[in-house]
Q: What sequence folds into this?
């Protein structure tokens, strides 16, 4: 009796209804809710530019403004940028949970730690779980219907927190941003984040998680035109499959200049992502823009 030929596994693009050779691109804006300048730049880039989705920092001061926008524009694709660091010099935020509940999340000034290393050093997984569940609950209380979750500064990709991140995503029905485990990512996970990404992938695959094929963040160069060239060259080099580009946007105003020294990079990215030439190039290259709303329809469901 002849052996039954096993059908090759469908690619993520094929599961989404596209061809395996199609180039699908999410242009995702991080840090929404951080401040007014970021909120305006991001919503304009979603309305007038090529940004397809974004994620919100719930503990930040300008969260209510972006929540109001989400209620007025439920069709827009927003997730939650789960926040366990507060990195700027003078512009800080605290956890939603109390100091009594989650003391390990706080630095000596009473704010969330400035970097992911200190959060991983001092916070317990149970504290992190309480806080990210509180952030999800607060977003929903404000009328936001998140399409996904990801992690500010990658803090939740630390080995001790990653199982919490994926568990909370599944239990709340929110697709977590996770990546297909290439050999390079497996090595990176072991050295930088302290966990075996290959074993984790096998476990999460059984639970029907969705894995991005590629992820890119940031642009090389120090000027608008060198950053534009980096993005445009990256678009031209895009591979078949599903790629996410992470961008950080702001206007050029006094607010953002007083928060961060990297305001110019954010302002440059806003200009690039709202430039009609950017959309024209994407169309010319045959790249198909998608968002997390499409991906989330596949999450936690068997193929």
A:
């Amino acid at each position: 009796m002849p052996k039954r030929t096993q059908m090759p596994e469908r690619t993520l693009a094929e599961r989404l209804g596209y061809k395996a050779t199609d180039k699908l691109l999410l242009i995702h804006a991080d840090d929404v809710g951080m401040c007014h300048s970021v909120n305006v730049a991001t919503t304009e880039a979603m309305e007038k530019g090529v940004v397809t989705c974004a994620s919100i920092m719930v503990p930040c001061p300008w969260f209510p403004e972006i929540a109001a926008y989400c209620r007025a524009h439920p069709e827009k694709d927003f997730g939650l940028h789960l926040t366990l660091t507060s990195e700027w010099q003078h512009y800080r935020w605290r956890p939603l949970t109390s100091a009594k509940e989650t003391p390990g999340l706080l630095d000596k000034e009473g704010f969330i730690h400035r970097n992911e290393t200190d959060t991983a050093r001092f916070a317990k997984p149970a504290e992190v779980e309480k806080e990210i569940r509180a952030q999800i609950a607060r977003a929903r209380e404000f009328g936001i219907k998140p399409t996904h979750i990801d992690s500010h500064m990658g803090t939740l990709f630390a080995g001790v927190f990653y199982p919490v991140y994926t568990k909370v995503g599944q239990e709340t029905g929110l697709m977590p941003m996770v990546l297909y485990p290439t050999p390079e990512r497996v090595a990176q996970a072991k050295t930088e984040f302290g966990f075996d990404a290959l074993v984790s992938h096998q476990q999460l695959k059984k639970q029907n998680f969705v894995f991005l094929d590629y992820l890119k963040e940031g642009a090389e160069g120090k000027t608008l035109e060198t950053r534009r060239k980096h993005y445009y060259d990256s678009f031209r080099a895009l591979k078949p499959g599903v790629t996410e580009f992470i961008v950080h946007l702001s206007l050029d105003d006094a607010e953002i200049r007083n928060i961060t020294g990297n305001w110019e990079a954010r302002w440059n990215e806003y200009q690039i992502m709202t430039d009609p030439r950017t959309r024209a190039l994407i169309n010319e290259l045959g790249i198909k823009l998608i968002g997390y709303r499409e991906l989330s329809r596949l999450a936690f469901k068997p193929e």
Notes: The chain has a mean pLDDT of 94. Strands lie at 23-32, 53-56, 78-82, 148-151, 175-176, 214-217, 241-247, 288-289. The chain is about 40% helix and 15% strand.
